[in-house]
Amino acid sequence: MSDPNTNSVPAITDAERDELRRHGILLTSLEELHNWGRSNSIWPLQFGLACCAIEMIATATARFDIARFGAEIFRPSPRQADLMIVSGTVTKKMAPQVVRLWNQMPEPKYCIAMGACAISGGPFKQGYNVLKGIDRFIPVDIYIPGCPPRPEALLNGLIQLQKKIRGERLTGPDAARHARPDEPSEFPVPDFGEHDLVPPKNPDVWEPPASLARSGKS
Amino acid sequence: METPEQIRDRLLARFPGAQISVVTNPGPAAEHALLLDAAHAREIAFFLRDDPALRLDYCSNVTGIDWPEKEIAETAKVSVPDPAGGPAKIVEQKTKRIQPGFLEVVYHLYSMALKQGPVILRLRTGNRTDQVTLPSFMPVWRSCDFQEREVFDLFGIVFEGHPDLRRILMWDEFKDHPMRKDYVAPDDFEWEPTPHSDVLARAQTHYPAASPAATGDGGKS
């Protein structure tokens, strides 16, 4: 691993490293090796919420074969998983359980919001019983649009997540979320209120867009 | 199979005190319903299940309807005699009356044994606030269990005699009945790309900058 004092300046650039690889010299850093290993053995949490889960199951079958990307071990326990694919509509009744599952997953952990419902509530956004996006309560790494997304789209989302993991720094000021002690690993679980979830969103994770007109105000 | 009118006549002969009427359905399906009174509904339901000519042994669907209070304007032509002795004038008289609101529960019954149906039953509550109790049909048809719980959850109709009347879709702490016409969802507005009509009106309360007067200089501030 690179020295914490000089971590912002890599000892060798990616271009130089690739040049050396072309000549048969394999040079790597512990960070890169570590991320490479992590990115190729993502264990998703085995849980589905709606029709997106059917596409997720199809992604695991031989035709699409998520095993090509090392993510075929769907674990039935959050203690053994490091990727939560929120595959489907999150109802307000289910939302506290989803947050609880997320809290039970060990770091480093990643979240994919699969499909329109998990992103924003989707076609059920105006409903009284649907959470308008799981990113109101937990941090989401990858959003996959679609209703539902094709298995290829889920694979592409997984590849994007792998890219994100490979690019993560483990130390220093630009370290990944899981490597920062000040970033929370657990998030408050909402309670069932008389009219809505209490609170309806976690302000530390999600803020409503500042301006409807996108006028540039922050 | 008997028509609803024939069933009504047979029921009235069998249960003399009951109030049973046929509610016609003007749609192309023309599935007319039997409107029962709550006091006799349970024994009528047992009769319909066990009657050898009907044997309605299967309740396929239970649903609720909310009929809010409605103002009905009626125009009637009234002839007013002319005080001067001329011919009587015909004047249109407009009257308004308020039809009180009520909740309704609808049962769709079929006979598996005789392969016939549906027979549709309706029950109405006294009002929408405090007289919302109706007899449960779960002792008659076991399949009413979850569906009556759903009607209780979403419409607030209390089924007397239901052994386990809890909310089924919403959580137990929830107080509202979302399928009622006057239900207002919590104001949880979120930015939408193309708001219009009432969505735009709600957007402007949340984002005052989006009002037409402010959008002009929105980019500068």
Q: What would your notes on this structure say?
A:
The complex is a heterodimer of chains A (218) and B (221). Chain A is α/β, with parallel strands linked by helices and 218 residues long. Chain A has 2 domains: 9-38, no CATH class; 42-165, Rossmann fold, CATH 3.40.50. Chain A is built from 6 helices and 5 strands. Chain A has helices at 14-22, 30-39, 51-60, 95-104, 115-120, 151-166; strands at 83-87, 110-114, 142-144, 191-192, 197-198. In chain A, strands 1-2-3 form a 3-stranded parallel β-sheet. Chain A has a two-stranded antiparallel ribbon with strand order 4-5. In chain A, β2 (110-114), α5 (115-120) and β3 form a beta-alpha-beta unit. In chain A, α2 runs antiparallel to α6 and α3 (51-60) crosses α6. With 221 residues, chain B is an alpha/beta fold. Chain B is built from 5 helices and 9 strands. The termini of chain B are far apart. Chain B has 2 domains: 4-67 and 102-185, NADH:ubiquinone oxidoreductase Nqo5 subunit (Beta Polymerase, domain 2, 2-Layer Sandwich), CATH 3.30.460; 187-221, no CATH class. Classes of the chains: A alpha/beta (218), B alpha/beta (221). The A-B interface holds A 92-93, 120, 125-126, 128-129, 132, 192-196, 200, 208-209, 211-213, 215-217 and B 169-176, 178, 183, 185-186, 188-191, 195, 203-204, 206-207, 209-210, 214-215, 218-219, 221.
